TrEMBL record:
<dbReference type="Pfam" id="PF03969">
    <property type="entry name" value="AFG1_ATPase"/>
</dbReference>
<dbReference type="GO" id="GO:0005737">
    <property type="term" value="C:cytoplasm"/>
</dbReference>
<dbReference type="InterPro" id="IPR027417">
    <property type="entry name" value="P-loop_NTPase"/>
</dbReference>
<keyword id="KW-0131">Cell cycle</keyword>
<dbReference type="GO" id="GO:0005524">
    <property type="term" value="F:ATP binding"/>
</dbReference>
<keyword id="KW-0132">Cell division</keyword>
<keyword id="KW-0067">ATP-binding</keyword>
<dbReference type="InterPro" id="IPR005654">
    <property type="entry name" value="ATPase_AFG1-like"/>
</dbReference>
<keyword id="KW-0547">Nucleotide-binding</keyword>
<protein>
    <submittedName>
        <fullName>Cell division protein ZapE</fullName>
    </submittedName>
</protein>
<dbReference type="GO" id="GO:0051301">
    <property type="term" value="P:cell division"/>
</dbReference>
<dbReference type="GO" id="GO:0016887">
    <property type="term" value="F:ATP hydrolysis activity"/>
</dbReference>
Length: 380
């Protein structure tokens, strides 16, 4: 038994995880993969010289299933306990933004197919790529994926990824999907596909009976949201002063600072998201990157802060369309958030969505479920 499976078993024995047959099967497969990757000689060793090329890459893994089934937890165990140098873990959306930036630089050189040098450079940087939440939602990504990953996987890359969907449902109903089908074939050829669709949604289980819309703003609501954040992310409360931050790419041209950013959960203040000049591209980037958003400091809205209210409406639309979980602290319940004045009627749809987002049915949906492909603000 190597480190990955041993650590999983320890967590079950300690009562931190519930026994789950599907999780155990995935942990065992990840354990074998870790051993295979660790057994490969270092680059430049005698074996490499004898072969004249990189050793055949280990077969990867595609973990898919509904929200809260333990995909990210298992990826954590695998990646943290994998003892190799050239490994990288990245959110799939961020990775594709980087790919398009590199392709743009290569095109400036006018030196043939830009995919080849980009793929070769990326394989040189990592022989394992671990992706969080593989999802394809625009034609620009779909157009390059098959050629890019075919090149990388035949030149030494192993891929481990999580997704809410099986490979056959990626880019479903997307524009020119027939051109994307070779990438699905590649995934099924090069990766083992394992599902995690057990009966327990562990993420919802951690929220318990908590109301996701807390009133009023204040220390009590802030403390409850903070506790929820630590439960959702498994981050030790004693290290609360060191919660990671991150910079979220927006449209490939700028970045949005995220004050707390961990395991698909982000924390923002209303002032940062709606009190500053932001648009749909910001909110779409957030909705695609995070499965849960914690939003604090939502004030009463009305004609006197109509710009903030308009941005809030756009934010909620993006979160709702991508089935993002919203945990919030506000000065009023949704029905009384925008009580009177010009704009009150138009706010009714937002009230309806906010209430639906508190329902058990909505909370049980997978992140990105039902999203619109090539939505405004994406690169096409």
């Amino acid at each position: 038994m190597s480190t990955v499976l041993k650590r999983y078993s320890q967590l079950v024995e300690a009562g931190e995880l519930k026994p789950d047959a599907e999780q155990a099967a995935v942990a065992e497969r990840l354990d074998r993969l870790a051993q295979e990757l660790e057994a490969v000689p270092k680059r430049g060793s005698l074996l490499w010289k004898v072969l004249g090329k990189a050793p055949e890459p280990a077969r990867g893994l595609y973990m898919w299933g509904g929200v809260g089934r333990g995909k990210s937890m298992l990826m954590d165990l695998f990646f943290d306990n994998l003892d190799i140098r050239r490994k990288r873990r990245v959110h799939f959306h961020e990775f594709m933004l980087e790919v398009h930036e590199r392709l743009a630089e290569e095109r400036k050189k006018e030196a043939g197919d830009p995919i080849v040098p980009v793929a070769d450079a990326m394989v040189g940087e990592a022989r394992l790529l671990a992706f969080d939440e593989m999802v394809i939602n625009n034609t620009a990504d779909a157009a390059v994926l098959s050629r890019l990953f075919t090149r990388m996987m035949t030149h030494g890359l192993t891929v481990v990824t999580t997704s809410n969907r099986p490979p056959s449902d990626l880019y479903k109903n997307g524009l020119n999907r027939s051109l994307f089908l070779p990438f699905i074939d590649l995934l099924q050829e090069r990766l083992d596909v394992l599902s995690l669709n057990g009966p327990v949604d562990y993420r919802l289980d951690r929220l318990g009976s908590m109301d996701t819309w807390l009133v009023p703003n204040g220390p009590e609501a802030t403390a409850e949201l903070s506790d929820a954040f630590f439960r959702l992310t498994d981050y030790p409360v004693e290290d609360r002063a060191h919660v990671p931050t991150c910079e979220l790419p927006v449209g490939g041209t700028r970045e949005l600072h995220v004050p707390k950013c961990l395991k698909g959960v982000a924390v923002f203040s209303f002032k940062r998201l709606c009190g500053e000049a932001r648009g749909s591209s910001d909110y779409l980037a957030i909705a695609r990157r995070f499965h849960t958003v914690v939003l604090v400091g939502i004030p009463k809205l009305g004609p006197e802060n109509r710009n903030e209210a308009a941005r809030f409406v756009t934010l909620i639309d993006a979160l709702y369309e991508h089935k993002v979980k919203l945990l919030a602290a506000a000065d009023a319940v949704p029905e009384h958030l925008y009580d009177e004045g010009d704009g009150r009627f138009e706010f009714e749809r937002t009230v309806s969505r906010l209430n639906e987002m508190r329902s058990d049915e909505y909370l049980a949906k997978g992140h990105g479920e039902g999203e619109t492909l090539d939505a405004p603000g994406t690169t096409a």
